[in-house]
Each structure stands twice: as C-alpha cells, then as structure tokens.
Write a structure and sequence with these properties.
alpha+beta, Helix Hairpins, HSP40/DNAj peptide-binding domain, four-stranded mixed beta sheet, 10 helices, 18 strands, 26% strand, binds zinc ion
C-alpha cells in the first residue's frame, strides 16, 4: 500500500491517544478500548469517529505500515521535506499515489503494488443483531435454535455483478476502467473514487431485474445459534461471521443475538444462582423443621433451624444453574406464613400461646 495524503494530514497516534513510542501492545489496547467506546452498533452517530479509529489502527497496528507511516510523517510536507518541492515551484503537482516512486526504497512495498480504491476494496460486512425469546428452562439448559436475520446479501440472480444474466458490464466511460478520477489541487493531484461507477471501473448497461443493478438484495436467512447453558435475560451472544456478508471478498460481520428469558412461575435468578420463596408455618420457624424444596431437578431437603426469622435465606450449594464450568446455588428464602382463618382447635392453641408469651418483642422500642 502506497502512502496516502491522509498520512500527511492525520496524526494517527493522536487519534488513538498514544505516544509515537507506544509498543504494539499499547497500540492494540488503545484501539480496542476506543473501538468499543465508539462502535456504531452501540453508539449510533459515532460512525465517523469509529472510521477514524479503524483507519489509525489499520496503519499503526501493522508493523510494516507503521514504519512507512513514520517515515512519511518524518519526511512529509509538514516536516519541510516535501514542502521544499512545492516552494521551489519546479513541481506542477504530482500524484500522491506515486509518492512511493519519489521515495524509492523507503517504501519497500510501495510502487510495485497496484492500488485499490475504496469502491473495490474488500469490505467487512456489517454486524447484525437478532432477538431471541427463550423459556426459563431453555435458558437454564442451553439450546440449539435458529433466528431469522434480514440483511443485505449478494444478489442471487446476477451473482453480485448487477447485470442481467447473459449480459456483461462495460468499462466505465468516465474513468476508463481505473475506478478513480483525478482532482487537481495544486501541489497534490488527488485521486478519488469515480462517481460514475462507484470505483468499480465498470458500468452496468442492462441491469439485473432482481437487484436493479446494485448487485445486492435484501435477504432473510435462518441462522442456527447455539445458546450456552445459563444465559441470562438481556445477554448478547456473538455468532462470529454470521452477520452481513462482506463485499469484494471481505469477511462477513458478526451476528449478535440478544436473549430474552421468560420468567419462571416459582423460580427467580440472580446470575448463576436460582432463587425461590418458600412459606413455612410459625411452629416450623419457632421449633425448627426439615422441609422439602423444589429445585430444577430433584427436590432438596432443607433443615430450618429453631428460631428462624421470616425472610432468612438459606444457600443450598450446587443446586443452581450450570454455566460453563461454574455451578450456581439454590437460594431459599423462607417466609413465615400467617393463617388468615383458624378453626376452633387452632384458635385455642394460639390463644394459649399468647397467654404463655412473656414480655413484648417491642420492649426495646420503649413501647
Ligand atoms: Zn442482481
Ligand atoms: Zn468510473
């Protein structure tokens, strides 16, 4: 890749917020942090900033490109090197893409390689998002299912050429097939993608009836997704490479599946732990008891010690959700149930208890 005008104008180190002495690791770390912060999926409107960050990393993240970039910045017009040509007036302008010829050996890869232009460059497909509704049990156990994804894909009728099958695109008359047009701006003659053909260098004359010449079509696909055991409501599962297909041989984007988990009739969840509220009687709370509590598989026996207050939570180890190699617990919260009606025998017993009760539980309140 030959140096671009952008290299003179943009301080990629500044874009990534690092020093020009940053190590490879520091470059990558800075990039990841910013890319996350400005990813357009999560932060609409941040596309430009995201592109800038990606462009900076594209160069600084590649040792060979970074070396070239540093050389260009050192020798570039801003540093006075190239500016000399301009001030001397001897140069009527030269093509930025040909700078590599001027610098000769500095750009080891420059010059010999044919430049590609944005329109024809391999482009990574966009990331897509799909929603998935799961029952509580499916979320607990994990499930293999599929989601519907609508995205732009290569047109099946024309195979992406945009031309009616049987006809071929012609060489673009505006750019003569180069895919770029030159725009003379004094010292630099800039190349930009040809507006007529969008940088492809060819033009569709007999458009494909399916895609009307775009080579793309909206397509619905079913994508198989494997949901791991123990997913939680609102979690995003990444399915690598199943987003929008790439353009011009670029890699596909990723698919993010947002999981919605239906609540369970009796169980709740706190991360990997399963929660349940279990009523107990006043005698069970007071005298202690062994009670049976449902879990996801077999019921468990729980010993309620004498003098248990309402609202106390007991942890039954290992009876929660499996997630990866971790195992959650079952959290049992007991609630002392107060009967709303009593038969004669019960009433007599409670009255006897009242008569025998010494002191007041509110004594410490001064009441
Ligand atoms: Zn088509
Ligand atoms: Zn053209």
């Amino acid at each position: 890749m030959a140096p671009q005008r952008e290299w003179f104008e943009t301080d990629y180190y500044k874009v990534l917020g690092i020093s020009s002495e940053a190590t490879e690791k520091e470059v990558t770390r800075a990039y990841r942090k910013l890319a996350k912060q400005y990813h357009p999926d999560a932060h609409p409107g941040s596309e430009d900033r995201f592109k800038e960050i990606s462009a900076a990393y594209d160069v600084l993240g590649d040792a060979a490109k970074r070396k070239e970039y540093d050389e260009v910045r050192r020798l570039g017009p801003a540093a006075g090197g190239l500016g000399g040509f301009g001030q001397g007036g001897g140069f009527g302008g030269f093509r930025v893409e040909d700078l590599s010829d001027l610098f000769g050996g500095i750009f080891r890869q420059g010059g010999s390689k044919r430049r590609t232009y944005p329109g024809a460059q391999a482009q990574r497909g966009a990331d897509l998002e799909a929603e998935l509704h799961l029952s509580f049990g499916e979320a607990v156990e994990g499930v293999v299912t599929s989601v519907n994804v609508t995205s732009t894909a290569t047109c099946a009728t024309c195979g992406g050429s945009g031309s009616r099958p049987g006809s071929s695109p012609v060489v673009c008359p505006r750019c003569g097939g180069r895919g770029v047009v030159d725009d003379n701006q004094g010292l630099f003659s800039l190349s930009s993608p040809c507006p007529e053909c969008g940088g492809r260098g060819t033009k569709v004359v007999d458009p494909c009836p399916t895609c009307h010449g775009t080579g793309l079509q909206r397509q619905q696909r079913r994508v198989k997704v494997r949901i791991p055991a123990g997913v939680d409501d609102g979690q995003r599962i990444r399915v690598k490479g199943r987003g929008e297909p790439g353009r011009n041989g670029g890699p596909a984007g990723d698919l993010y599946v947002v999981v919605h988990v239906e609540p369970h009739a009796i169980f709740g969840r706190r991360g990997k732990d399963l929660t349940i509220n279990v009523p107990i009687t006043f005698p069970e709370a007071t005298l202690g008891a062994t009670i049976t509590v449902p879990s996801l598989d077999n019921p468990v026996s729980l010993k309620v010690p004498p003098g248990t207050r309402s609202g106390r939570t007991f942890r039954v180890r290992g009876r929660g959700l499996h997630s990866g190699n971790q195992q959650g617990d079952l959290l049992v919260t007991v609630e002392v149930s107060v009967p709303s009606s009593l038969d004669d025998a019960e009433r007599k017993a409670v009255e006897a208890l009242a008569a025998a009760t010494k002191g007041s539980p509110r004594a410490h309140l001064g009441a």
